[in-house]
C-alpha cells in the first residue's frame, strides 16, 4: 500500500510541476521538498522508538533525496526551455537506474527480453535527442 501511495505522489509531482507558472522559479520544487521532509519527519517521530536505522542507511537516504531534488530541478529547467519531449522520456526511464545498480552491486541477472528492452530504450533516447 505504501508503494502505491508513493507512486501516486511521485506521478502527481511530475504532472503538477509543468503547470506551475514560469515566474514561480524553483519555489514549487522547494515546496515539494519541504512537504516531503515534513511528512517523512512526522513518520519518523511517530515511530522513533521502533526505528533502529544504521547511520550508513541514513546517509544513503539523504543522498538519494539530494539526487532526487537535483533531478527535479533539472526536469523543471528542461520544461522551461521547451525540452519537454526529451525530459519526459528521460524521466520515464528512471527505473533503469535501479536495474543497472542491481546488476552491478547485487549481481542480478537480466533476461534476454530485459536486455533488449534496455537497448531499445537507449536507442529511443538517442533518436529523440537527434530528432
What do these coordinates show?
The relative contact order is 0.07. The chain has 6 helices and no strands. The model has no long low-confidence stretch (mean pLDDT 79). By secondary structure, the chain is mainly α. It is flat, with a radius of gyration of 18 Å. α3 (55-80) runs antiparallel to α4 (84-92).
List keywords for this structure.
131 residues, mainly alpha, 6 helices, 0% strand, flat
What is the topology?
Layout: H1 2-16, H2 27-46, H3 55-80, H4 84-92, H5 96-105, H6 112-130
Topology pattern, helix = H, strand = E: HHHHHH
Helix/strand-derived class? mainly alpha
Q: Report how far apart the termini are.
A: 40 Å
> Percent of residues in beta strands?
under 5%
Helix content: over 70%
Structure annotation, total helices: 6
The count of DSSP E runs of length 2 or more, i.e. the number of strands, is 0
Gist?
This protein has 131 residues and is mainly α. Helices cover 76% and strands 0% of the residues.
Amino acid at each position: 500500500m505504501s508503494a502505491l501511495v508513493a507512486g501516486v505522489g511521485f506521478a502527481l509531482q511530475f504532472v503538477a510541476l509543468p503547470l506551475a507558472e514560469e515566474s514561480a522559479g524553483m519555489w514549487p520544487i522547494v515546496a515539494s521538498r519541504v512537504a516531503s521532509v515534513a511528512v517523512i519527519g512526522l513518520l519518523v517521530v511517530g515511530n522513533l522508538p521502533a526505528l533502529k536505522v544504521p547511520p550508513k542507511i541514513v546517509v544513503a537516504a539523504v543522498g538519494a533525496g539530494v539526487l532526487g531534488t537535483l533531478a527535479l530541478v533539472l526536469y523543471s529547467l528542461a520544461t522551461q526551455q521547451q525540452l519537454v519531449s526529451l525530459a519526459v522520456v528521460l524521466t520515464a526511464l528512471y527505473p533503469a537506474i535501479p536495474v543497472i545498480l542491481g546488476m552491478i552491486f547485487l549481481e542480478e541477472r537480466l533476461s534476454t527480453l530485459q536486455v533488449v528492452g534496455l537497448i531499445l530504450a537507449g536507442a529511443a533516447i538517442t533518436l529523440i535527442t537527434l530528432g
